[in-house]
Amino acid sequence: MMKIILSALCAVMVTLTGLSQAFSEELVVYSARKEHLIKPLFDAYEKKTGVTIKYITGKAPVLLERLKSEGAQTPADLLMTVDAGNLWHAAREGVLQPVSSSVLAANIPASLRDPENRWFGLSRRARTLVYSTERVSPSELSSYENLADPAWKGRLALRTSKKVYNQSLVAMLIAEHGETKTEAIIKGWVSNLAAPPFSSDTKALEAIIAGQGDVAVVNTYYFGRLQKKTPGLPLAIFWPNQSTGGVHVNVSGAGVTAHSKHPDAAKALLEWLSGPEAQNLFADANMEYPVNPSVKPHDFVAAWGEFKGSDLGLEKAGELQSDAIRLMDRAGYK
After folding, report:
1. What pLDDT is stored for residue 283 in this prediction?
2. Which residue in 85, 66, 27, 60 sits closest to 273, CA to CA?
3. Which residues pair with 30 in a beta bridge?
4. Whole-number Å distance between alpha carbons of 208 and 131
5. How far apart, in Å, are the Cα atoms of 270 and each of 82, 98, 102, 300?
6. Is there a contact between 237 and 302 (Cβ–Cβ < 8 Å)?
7. β-bridge mates for residue 124, sequence order
């Protein structure tokens, strides 16, 4: 009897020790997402689990170089960044490790995560068309490819090709059409520009409001920010390619670092981020779409209407990024 009691006490002590370690654990996140977008998430997770989250924010390339230089000495357990191209690059550089999780597989569609499970999309954004409701009829619009038509000469507003969002869009066009056809499309875009490429999506939208151009290619949340700030703007969203490959979608996402000191705890955080509670917080903070199909977008975002998104695997955004950059350079897209 005494042996049974002692064994039971030992089991209890082991369990308590495990719980103590879990609740005293600290996770370190390197994030290319801004503090105001991630802090509410981490605060909620800390309150729910007792796990402390320390985060360091910075530009995606800087954080990647930091991870590479720190190597096995890095304190980072998780890397969060925007754009599948950046996530793919981090995986290729060996700073992320594969994660096996039935939860992540169930919550995140295959096209929005790495085929080797090194990174996972956590919020979804559409790079779509926004047009002037004063000068454009929706019947004039149809596809990304159609914007190369001479009918749009002097009417197109684009962000610079230096931004990864446009590099990924062109990479996905290459995946769909091949380089020759995509180069012809991009040359058509350049010929139709209303002004030299803008430094941001917001500036492209503001130019249309001011009458400098009629249609732009932008991420949906930039439109949302302007719309929320100034309701009634003479702008509207158009979902292109609905009868073909679908709207270009991209993600912000994360992966467990290759040298994480707490890989199980980092995986648990990833799984929570893909679940309903976090998905609403994560997507709503920046007017994005949840990646989890069971979670509905915020009413403000849902009001833009439903669309068919491309189901091409987003790893192509990374694999073809260098090809896309060279193609845009050849086409004169600055």
Report:
1. 87
2. 27
3. 56, 79
4. 8
5. 15, 13, 12, 26
6. no
7. 251, 289
pLDDT tens digits along 126-179: 999 999 999 999 999 999 999 999 999 999 999 999 999 999 999 999 999 999
Residue 309 and residue 247: Cα distance in Å, rounded? 4
Rounded to an integer, the average pLDDT of 63-92 is 97
Give Rg (Cα) of the chain: 22
CA 198 from centre of chain:
21
The tokens of 318 are what?
């990374």
* Phi, psi for residue 194 in degrees, rounded to 5: -85, -20
Q: Which amino acid type is present at position 26?
A: E
Residues 6+ apart with CB under 8 A from 317: 83, 84, 85, 88, 167, 168, 171, 172, 250
Report pTM. Answer: 0.89
Hey, is 137 helix, strand or coil?
coil
227/301 Cα distance (integer angstroms): 11
For 24, half-sphere exposure in the C-beta direction (CA atoms, 13 angstrom radius) is: 6
Residue 274: count other Cβ atoms within 10 Å of its Cβ. Answer: 27
Inter-residue contact 55 to 29 (CB < 8 Å): yes
User: What confidence score (pLDDT) does residue 185 get?
Assistant: 98
Structure tokens at 147: 């914007």
Does residue 109 surpass a pLDDT of 60? Answer: yes
Q: What is the pLDDT of residues 253-262, one digit of tens each?
A: 999 999 999 9
